[in-house]
Amino acid sequence: MVIKVTKIVLALSLLMAIAGFAEEIPYDYNRGLGLLEICSQSPAQSLRLTLPTVIPADIKPGWRTDIRSTWTNVWAKESEFLLDYEMLDTVVALSYGFNTRFGLLVAFQNRNYFGGEMDSLIQGVHDQFGIRQNGRDKVPKDRGVVELFDPQTGENVLEFSAGGLNSNRLCFLLNYNISYGTQTWPSVNLYAVAGYPLKSADIFTDDNQVDVGFGLGAAKRWSKKWYTYGALGFTKFDEREVPALAPGMKPLELEDEQLTGMFSLSWHCTPTFAILAQYLCSGPAVKDIRKLDQPSHEVHLGFKWSTQRHGVVQFGLIENVIVHDNSPDFGLHLGWSYQQ
Fold it and tell me: Are 61 and 339 in contact (CB under 8 A)?
């Protein structure tokens, strides 16, 4: 009898613990204001679909409109290439949440390459803080060019306008919130993305490829002020032909698959204003080109501000770390979203 009572008490205690552990919380309890929605701006990665980072409760019930632009400056000089341009990556998106679990998003993304309007500012900052210019002060400012060299002789074998890399695409995203989480465990979501190019960079021979990706996101509230967010993603690229860009050069080889990872730390100064620091790592996008064939590493620092009546504003700065030649030298990000 004592054993039976003991078993019942233990079972009830376990059920009470589980009930306490699974205490009901709002579906967006662990999200707060969310992360800075910036995908990779690195040179090689930007030629095709760059997987977005989505966390639980990003797509809330009802309609939401998003407009985001990211302006980056790229300077990279190696024995095989020189990249000197700027890119404006603009996204206009419309999403709809059917309920607190399932939602979809359709986006138009345009990437425009042009001459460097940031060159004077960046070179001035480098001079002020004693940072090496790495040769950027030895060429004219405000250029938008890509140059290829013979690595043996250093001879310039090809130069073309960075505008030839202009591209745009339609993206379709489905999101499912697996768990809302608890006060102890994070919320978790799973999402899938497909990108269809309307116009690819001129180096590609075809515009009909469809890239697909899958991601797993998580969000955790640690206190009223501190949140962390994370995402892991996998992208499968459709085959693309890139012919030799100059006589004697071998065709550009692209990676077929890519892994991405993002971590974000958010401090909510108030319920409507948060400061964020993020780290984004994207796997290699091309093969056998020194520096460009390595993962890119991008750091974001910025804020999100909920105006409550007029939507949410986000602003961020972008810097490259670890391998500087395969990620943007500097960037600015600005976005606005409105939930109906």
Answer: no
Distance between CA atoms of 112 and 74, rounded to whole angstroms?
Answer: 13
Backbone angles phi, psi at 247, to 5 degrees: -55, 135
pLDDT value of residue 131: 66
Q: What torsion do the CA atoms of 265, 271, 272, 278 make, to the nearest 10 degrees?
A: 0
Q: How far apart are CA 218 and CA 185, in angstroms?
A: 10
The CATH number given to 2-339 is: 2.40.160.40
pLDDT at site 59: 97
Half-sphere exposure of 112 (CA within 13 A, CB side): 9
Amino acid letter, 279: Y
pTM of the model: 0.88
The pLDDT tens digits for 309-322 are: 899 999 999 998 77
Beta strands in 78-166 (DSSP E): 81-97, 102-114, 145-149, 156-161
Question: Cα(129)–Cα(31) distance, rounded to whole angstroms?
Answer: 37
Tell me what pLDDT residue 154 has.
74
